[in-house]
Amino acid sequence: MNIETKERLKSEIKSLETDPFKSRSHAGIKKLKGTKKREDLYRLRVGDYRVIYAVEDNTIFVLEIIP
Question: Which domain of life is it from (predicted)?
């Protein structure tokens, strides 16, 4: 992963602090269906990468970054 991509991912993950549920024009957010765990999981799309995260009590947990 190049430095530009890393910085973009960091920026988009940081922007989740404002509203972790609202899609942006340059980064789509989607609630994942069919998760077996009790918490709701979300996917943030940033270019060719996907960030899987959960929100619990106003805390964002990044679970995985997938190319």
Answer: Archaea
